[in-house]
Amino acid sequence: MPTALTFDLLRLLSDAQFQSGPALARRLGVSRAGLRSALRDLDMIGVELARNPHHGYRLAAPIDWLDAAQIKAGLGPHAVLYDLRLLDMTASTNTTLLENAAGMPSGTVVVAELQTAGRGRRGRGWHTGLGGALTFSVLWRFEQGAGVLAGLGPAVGVALVRALRELGATEALLKWPNDVLVRHQKIAGTLVEIQGEVLGPSLAVIGIGINCRLDPATRQRIDQAVTDLASVGVHAPRNHVLAGLLSHLAVVLLEFSAQGFAPLRKEWESFHVYAGKRVALRLPDGSFEQGIAAGVSDDGALLLQTNTGLRRFHSGEVSLRPLSGAGEPRSASGG
How many whole angstroms separate alpha carbon 120 and alpha carbon 320? Predict the structure, then answer.
């Protein structure tokens, strides 16, 4: 398991110059055995080293490190809304915020260079390599009760698509309830977890994962069709991407706090990849409900036009799949 020493070593190797083993051990204050252990940790997290028997080690490719000052500069007027906390490593940014929410202000953002046990919807894992993605969570407090926040997940999706399109991912679309796709491949996902009283106040921890540049090893661990920003022509530094995402998220969260999801509903529907198409919903008992995707309600529920009328389905109950034709639905990205 990577440790603080692992990240100290990575930062020493980030100057693009070869450094000998003895020099690295001396600068880190460890033995040669300790250095070898740290080098093995790099292999565990998918960091490739260039090795030269005469000159030592260097990174085979640079790491796009996160930098708080650059992120805050990119946020502009929205910087005052956020309390930014950068971590080298954590199991899950959502878990970190949920476990410490009592002492944290609204707008706290936890960003991790490496997330070792990232969580997606319905308990799925979120796989990333070091420097290849953005994994972060935002704590936001609301005066309203937890029940009013049902449409928050789709609202966050609107913010993500706005940001990604501004960055140049102009084909970004939404897949209900929590995925962002480009050309039917998943590029981002969200996980919203809510705590609070029925009548308020309440809080939400909004977890977001964005694929920036996936390495081959990480791609092999993912059991669905995925893409990344680099593959769709977006090569912006992660600090710039994160600042853009947080800026758009701030605008949406302020609007949602005041008016709920209703003002964002039509925009969400304009981004829905399966709008007006025949789809199948897989229910918790394993059965399927088929119909036409007819948009979403003011609380973010999926509206499905079935043979028996218009039905509503809430996030967490179902997963969405497009129909490939008559009969059983085929698998698709996300969900």
Answer: 15
